[in-house]
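Table S7 (text form). Paired inputs.
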Amino acid sequence: MSRRKSSKPTSPAPTEPKLVASQSWHGPLPPPAALEHFERIVPGAAQRLIDMAEAEQKHRHSIEAGTLFTQQEAVRLTARDNLVGMVLGFLAQASGIGAAVWSVIAGAHWAVSLGFISLPV
């Protein structure tokens, strides 16, 4: 004899409705009521949370101070590089003009003076 499977779907067992609640907050510390609740559940938890928030703030401040120092150093180095570039550019142009004046005094062809003046360009 073969058994036949019933094609009738079985309905799931009825379930009771569930209530889910959640709470969130912004910032490193929960509101005072939640801190008090944590302290009742785990003695010392509130102090540990406060210590953790203070340590996080110190860490964040040290990271921001390092970033600020890096930015200030980059500005300082850029200013130094700009000044060095201007000094070297001035020296190159001054030496070209000096060589052009020397070539005129020495009696060289006018194209030599023009070459010395346009050399740094």
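Next pair, protein 2 of 2.
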Amino acid sequence: MSSRQRAGMRAPGSSMGAGPGTGRRVSSDRSPGRGGRRADGGQESLAAQALAAALRFDAPADVVLRKFFTAHPQMGRGDRARVAEQVFDVLRNRRLYAHLAQSRGGPVPAALLAISAESDRLDLAGLSPPVRLSLPDWLYQRLALRLGADELEALGAAMLHGAPLDLRANLLKANRDEAVQALRAEGIDCAPLPLAPHAIRVQGKPALERTAAFRDGLVEVQDAGSQLIAELVAPRRGQTVIDFCAGAGGKTLALAAALRGSGQVFACDVSSARLQRLRPRLARSGASNVQPFGMDSELDPKLARLEGRADAVLVDAPCSGTGTLRRNPDLKWRQPESAIGELVAKQRSILAAAARLVRPGGALIYATCSLLEEENDQIRRWFETVNPEWKVEPATELLQRRGADLDPVLEQDCLRLRPDTHDVDAFYAVRWIRPR
């Protein structure tokens, strides 16, 4: 997963479900160019000021907006939501809008916002696909190596829109039908999502955190694709499971619930701050079988106590996050191509370290939210070359047995999800069994 996802971000200054920074749909009716009251006198609009700060790319966009809204306390919830919508629309379409803005005068942020307001009337004829889809050349070229022109067009177009809001029913407190009923009783428009067995899709942008269903831990915010990664771990009651890159703990909580409070889940991470943010989520979920495990790196000597003990180890690896561009569009512009090689080296090191923790006959699951083959199939081939005795357990068959409705199935051996085909973040995952 990307480091930003790992932090469990939500939209700055907005309700849960209204945040573009987390992939929650800001509005069911996109009107990206409207909003932003004017600041004092003849100053630029608040939206232009916020966009100018985000376009410096010196911090993640959601962090920038959170600071901006804190500095402008006069903005109400509706103002914050509209400005966030405008800023994230420009970030998703930055290359296209910047190309079109060349013929316009005035400050760049204002010009980009004006084009955003006209987004449904733009003439895109004759523009190259990377410009039309607002993708950096390096990313477009990498995707074109694996996808046909039509597939790449569909994928790129899907990533120009915000992601929907998905919830996971917390099995420690309610099944999916009970959770849906509780949410509907509080006016939340939602329905079961067949893709994942405990997934619920919410319409619009409700103030989810104000509901008793959320406060009481009946549901957790989690993309349905992410839920399938936890399902692929397939933990059984009483087992020992390790979430090797736990972050703020979304998949940790799903694993704890799947164990029905039995066994133990070790939530490992190099960031004590992220693990600290996990604690209130644990309390709300009712999970009592999670052990936060801080470590200096994947080579921390403390990990020796876990070697060969785990029935299953999940490596949700730090990655480029290119599968999350609907919710983190600034990653396209802040992350250089040169970072991919560094990430691949780290992924190999983490996967090798995690494999040592798996008991004979246990499972190792490698997952990313990346679209890039370097981080996905190439990592798989490297691991299987180094560990030829480990065998792949087909992901599609396992997930279907656990109640997932994978339509369409892109691959049998591994899990591959895309926003254009499944309307979730892009994920890749493979599951190996260690020989006895």
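The chain has 19 helices and twelve strands.
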